[in-house]
Design a protein that fits this description.
Blueprint lengths: L1 H13 L3 H24 L6 H39 L6 H7 L5 E4 L2 H8 L8 H4 L11 H13 L1 H4 L3 E5 L5 E8 L18 E7 L2 E10 H5 L5 H21 L20 E4 L9 H10 L2 H4 L3 E4 L1 H8 L10 E2 L9 E2 L2 E5 L12 E6 L1 H4 E18 L4 E14 L5 E5 L3
Helix pairs in contact: 1-3, 2-3, 5-7, 7-10
Length: 415
Amino acid sequence: MKHSSNETWRALALAGNVPELRKIKTAVIARAESMLESAQLQGRDLDSSETREFNSLKEQAVELGSLVEHSSERRAKTERETARYKQDNDLSFEWRSFLKGDSVKVEADYSNILANRIAGKTPGRERRDIVTTTGLGSVPTRVIDEIVLRLVTESAILQAQPRLFNTASGETIKVPTFTAYGTASFLSEGSAYSESDPTASSVELKAFKVGRLLQVSQELIDDTEFDIESYLAQELGVSVGVAIANAIDGTNIGGSTAVQGAFSTATSVGATGTAANGAPTVDDLITLFYSVNPRYQVNGSWIMNPATLKQVVGLNDTQGRSLLLPSLSQDTPTTLLGRPVYLSDSVQSFGTGSKSSVIFGDISKFYYVRFAGGLKLVASPEFALNTGLVTYRIDSRVDGRVVDTNAAKRFVGIA
């Protein structure tokens, strides 16, 4: 019966019937809540049969939430693509010239779009005005949009809204930080004030280049049926976006040669697991939550891989209640112990070997991201002239650093 229901849900998702999926999800959650309320009114815990049904309902709610999110994103993307196609006639001659490899370089400042998307805003068609060029006219933002979309959807850290720095150039910048705060005290009348200074430090944000080359045959470009703009967006934009997300959500210790991943050893350990498979338990998650100072808990977020969340779905407290509250809309993330959960495949999943698979804390204080010099697109018909290929190059410069190690802590699985 469940298999049949799942197939029906997937069919609704493919058809883009988001309202019906939300209606089913609401009914599933209502059924689960009703079971708990009924047991509580009777002064008892759920029996084994009810527990199995309740856990099944939780899994269904999570699956429905995922289908709603993906279906909504697909529908929104289709609408955006349709709007862009309608604007094709507005493309400047210079931009078409660039796509054919006749022009040299396009520079685009995508930092404002990125900041808006991270903050949950949805800029309209005025995005076109944000893009600037070198020697060219107004540039459509499909490539920019794809990069920003991938940056945010692929990176759980970016979804959790770290602090962003956008600079025109790429020289190293120092950001002041405080590892300890000064203290105040009560004074009697006429008493002298005592000095108490914070412990100051600084973090260096550099600018590491990420990019790639792509070659397209002149025949494909000249073919009016070939959507070169969309192809560039997918091939260039997606690869750069995913590469940056992997670095930010990764475990690299960074330093002078690379982005420092949020899951690097620079992040303090808040809980160490003992489960044989390396997955976090109820006690591990509670320990991790309370290992973070209360001043950071209030704006805290959970960062994890979808596979880790799947393990968490089956966890209950001693009263049989779930620690997880599934999202009821695409604008509201799933919550764990009352705080939002952000997912990304860029985050490593749980496992043995002391793997770090979960972070909890205030990401805006914990991690800083710097983008330098915007986005650069270069086209050259001469690079591979003898083969009749137009070569495109895309690059951007970025850095990420753990700043306040007290603001967030990580869970480490069993060795």
